[in-house]
Amino acid sequence: MGKFVYTKEILRRLQLTELDMLRELDRICRKHQIDYILDGGTLLGAVRHGGFIPWDDDVDVRMLRENYEKFCRICRTELSEDYFLQTWRTDPGYRWEYARILKKGTVYKRKGQYRMTAQNGIFIDIFPDDDLPENLVSKRICTCVSWLCRKLLYSEVGALSRKCFSSWLGFNLLNLFPKEWGHQGMKYLRQRYRDNGTPRVRCFGWGSAEEAGGFLRKWHMETKDIEFEGLSVRAPQDISGFLTYYFGEDYMTLPSEEKQTPGHTVTYIGFGG
């Protein structure tokens, strides 16, 4: 098999497959009064392009923890048989602390993840947001504990890294420990600060700089409909504030042409029948 190349046709077919999964998520959420918001580049695409950023290859949404847990419960009986709700509880080989809706019968292989035993396929990500403490010391503890837990959960992938010897060694050592320790650490953070009603929330299972600072709770509490590829979906009322926090004040400006590339290093995509 030759080197995988992202053609415009493959990318657009991938986007439309993900759009169908977003439509299913939205259907369930509206039926059961579960609020969610588009996240990151997905929301930016809705505002700047009316749908996908032309070179974007994924869909991300966020939910407050209580909505996330409710959604996961309802999906046991409500989710279309075409899809699988992938969490570390439903798939023993899956390591991450956020959920995915995965399309059955498809293949989506990424560089460095071929050794993972998790079910594979085209997916969209669902990030749960938990209370983030306001106290600076507590916030730094959250940052450190969640960072260590993420590294432990990522170690199966990181152990294949050839970036440098120290990184390779560190991940191989972490990979000797049970991944359940990472999940238990995340559970500790959720329970330690849960129901504090703090003004900021974050997904402890994701490690971006924006996550470390936290997102305003009001972006979840004050929402509205917005169009995405002809589909009515949910977004923060203060879209400008969210996108400015995420991308800076010039978020409507297109990046340079050399940066207009898909965000994932993919080695193969199979769309099934």
Keywords, separated by commas or semicolons:
single chain; 273 residues; alpha+beta; two-stranded antiparallel ribbon; 9 helices; 41% helix; globular
Average pLDDT score: 91
Radius of gyration: 18 Å
Query: β content, as a range?
Result: 15-25%
Give a count of the beta strands, DSSP E runs of length 2 or more.
Answer: 11
User: Helix share of residues?
Assistant: 40-55%
Number of helices: 9
- Briefly note the structural class of the backbone: alpha+beta
**What series of H and E elements makes up the topology?**
HEHEHEEEEHHHEHEHEEHE
User: What sort of overall outline do the alpha carbons produce when their principal axes are compared?
Assistant: globular
Low-confidence stretches: none
Largest sheet: 7 strands, mixed
Domain module tally: 1
Q: How many angstroms does the end-to-end distance come to?
A: 20 Å
Description:
This protein has 273 residues and is an alpha+beta fold. It has one domain. The chain is built from nine helices and eleven strands. It has helices spanning 8-31, 40-49, 65-78, 136-158, 165-174, 180-193, 209-213, 218-221, 239-247, and strands at residues 37-38, 60-64, 83-86, 99-103, 107-110, 123-131, 200-202, 215-216, 223-228, 231-236, 266-270. The strands form three sheets. Strands 1, 2, 3, 4, 6, 7 and 8 form a seven-stranded mixed sheet that branches. Strands 5-11 form a two-stranded antiparallel ribbon. Strands 9-10 form a two-stranded antiparallel ribbon. Strand 9 and strand 10 form a beta hairpin. Helix 2 (40-49) packs across helix 9, helix 4 packs across helix 5 and helix 4 packs antiparallel against helix 6 (180-193). 32% of the residues are buried. The model has no long low-confidence stretch (mean pLDDT 91).
